[in-house]
UniProtKB/TrEMBL annotation:
The chain crosses the membrane at residues 524-546. Residues 164-191 form a coiled coil. Residues 190-489 form the ABC-type uncharacterised transport system domain. This is Gliding motility-associated ABC transporter substrate-binding protein GldG. It comes from the Bacteria. Pfam families: ABC_transp_aux, DUF7088. The keyword Coiled coil applies. Keywords: Coiled coil, Membrane, Transmembrane, Transmembrane helix. Residues 33-143 form the DUF7088 domain. The lineage of its organism: Bacteria, Pseudomonadati, Bacteroidota, Cytophagia, Cytophagales.
């Protein structure tokens, strides 16, 4: 009896000691293959450095969310639980059901308040008790800090994917979207971005959405190349859709900026396309004085236009008459590729389709020490037109012939990483004023080269003249992922170990085998229902027999 008491006392003592140790030693163990319950080190650091409370409101409350939205809600809850572990009392989150209010007027007012903040509802048709029911869902959260609030869209997936795949992409993006919103609100010191806009004929309003988005995250400077002796001090430099040749002095400054570790993003057209009519125009070579620079860094933008016969945007065209009025219908226009083929990169992971206009192909050339990652690629069904290339709107009326569109996959954007060699190596004399500060080889750095200048250009409203969202297609009313692509690229290039790492999360879909579930339904029902019950009953019988034998004597 005494020995049994000592054993119990020892067990209690061990439990107490383990609990005391657990209060000093913190660890969490995620046994899932894709680490779905873990957050990135960058997010942990962000949360650990919070100085004031962050309030997160998630508008996916309620007990009867339709379809896969319940799974998205669980993903948000799991992520925010992890946020609380590392952010402590500085993270407070609440689940709100926008449809909980029984009073119709108050509910509609709450809907209007959310929409005023930029949260547009999603209407979902769900089957309930054999009937179709329309549900209004707000797949949003709002993050508040020091009186500032930003909305966070939680439902973000690639167009053309199934509903299940879109929801899975949204699940993968939850950590990044929430952490990025927190970073945006709590950022104390902003990185510096330079926009080298003096070589484009477009006015700033054509880059308005990009400029506004950059100013939310960074200190943005419009650079005057002639007045700036150097571009040093900038964390990234953007050359947006140049129409005029870059002078030699500016080219040298760009080269030395890169040699000193600067990050550069080039959005450059391959051909010059002026206004296009039904009869068309000839696209001419565009001389920008950058060919030798790009070649030295490892890529070449070709003087051509790539037509994509399998994935392109539509333009409104007159296809006939309806009575006495023209019949206008959206017709695929192969000069406007829609990119849905992405390279493996944090920049493009779970990215929506990219809307392009008059793109050129990019080839890679030998450049020692430079790693080249393709980011944006066409479908295999392409046709390449070399300069001078006839561009016409009437082309949209023609059929896509597979024999003509056999050019294969063409890359239109590359990420270049590594040590670059200067274009001016062995070209400067000791007597040159720049010789003392000249660098012939760069430190490790990054560069983005894209052969579509229009990718970062926003359209203007024909009625008001106000800028439309970047990537907005007036024909389909869909906002493509152009802005996300640019912002992701900048994030990766100037802070690759930051919150952008959260975009690397990948949750695998593991759908059931439909044929096996149909043909082996009964067997698996027995295995999942009858077998566990049988094991419990067998265990009970064995325990009963042992107890009976023990107390029989």
């Amino acid at each position: 009896m005494k020995s049994k008491f000592i054993k119990i006392l020892a067990i209690v003592g061990v439990i107490v000691v383990l609990n005391v140790l657990a209060s000093f030693v913190f660890f969490r163990l995620d046994l899932t293959e894709e680490k779905r319950y873990s957050i990135s080190d960058a997010t942990k650091t962000l949360l650990g450095n919070l100085d004031k409370e962050i309030l997160i409101k998630v508008y996916l409350g309620g007990t009867e969310l339709p379809g896969g939205f319940e799974r998205l809600k669980r993903a948000v809850n799991e992520t925010l639980d992890e946020f609380q572990v590392y952010g402590g009392s500085r993270i407070d989150y609440r689940l709100i059901d926008p449809s909980a209010e029984n009073d119709t007027k108050k509910r509609e007012e709450f809907y209007a308040e959310l929409m005023k903040k930029g949260m547009e509802p999603t209407r979902v048709i769900d089957n309930k008790n054999g009937r179709q029911v329309e549900n209004i869902v707000f797949p949003y959260a709002s993050v508040s800090y020091e009186g500032k609030e930003v909305p966070v869209l939680l439902l973000k997936g690639t167009e053309g994917r199934t509903a299940q795949e879109k929801l899975n992409q949204s699940y993968e993006n939850v950590e990044y979207e929430l952490a990025n919103a927190i970073r945006k609100l709590t950022l104390k010191e902003k990185k510096k971005i330079g926009l080298l806009a003096e070589f484009t004929k477009l006015k700033p309003v054509s880059f308005a959405d990009l400029i506004t988005s950059l100013q939310e995250r960074y200190d943005l400077f419009i650079i005057d190349a002639k007045q700036s002796p150097t571009f040093q001090g900038l964390d990234a430099l953007i050359l947006p859709k140049p129409d005029f040749p870059v002078d030699d002095s500016t080219k040298y400054k760009i080269d030395q900026y890169v040699m000193n570790g600067g990050r550069a993003l080039f959005f450059v057209d391959g051909l010059k396309v002026d206004s296009v009519g039904l009869q068309g125009t000839y696209a001419q070579p565009l001389e920008l004085n950058l060919t030798d620079l790009f070649f030295k860094y490892g890529v070449r933008i070709n003087s051509n236009i790539v037509k994509d016969g399998a994935s392109s945007a539509a333009i409104p065209m007159v296809v006939g008459n309806m009575g006495d009025k023209p019949n206008i219908q959206p017709i695929p226009y192969r000069f406007f590729p829609v990119i849905n083929n992405f390279g493996k990169s944090l920049i493009t992971n779970n990215l929506d389709l990219i809307f392009c206009r008059y793109v050129a192909s990019i080839d890679t050339v030998q450049a020692a020490g430079v790693n080249k990652t393709p980011l944006l690629m066409t479908t295999p069904y392409t046709k390449v037109l070399n300069a001078p290339a006839l561009v016409t709107y009437n082309e949209a009326h023609t059929e896509t012939q597979q024999d003509d569109y056999n050019g294969g996959i063409k890359t239109i954007a590359y990420l270049l990483e590594g040590k670059f060699e200067s274009l001016y190596k062995n070209r400067l004399l000791p007597s040159d004023p720049n010789y003392a500060s000249f660098k012939a080889e760069s430190v490790p750095t990054k560069m983005l080269v894209c052969s579509d200048g229009d990718l970062i250009v926003n359209d203007l409203s024909p009625k008001t003249g106000n800028p439309l969202p970047l990537g907005f297609d007036k024909t389909t009313q869909h906002v493509f992922g152009n802005k996300d692509f640019v912002l992701n690229a900048i994030d990766y290039m100037i802070d690759e170990n930051g919150v952008i790492q959260a975009r690397g999360k990948e949750i695998k879909l593991r759908p059931l085998d439909k044929l096996r579930t149909r043909d082996e339904r009964t067997k698996w029902q027995i295995i999942n229902i009858a077998l566990p019950l049988g094991i419990v009953i067998l265990f009970g019988i064995i325990l009963f027999m042992l107890r009976k034998r023990k107390f029989a004597y």
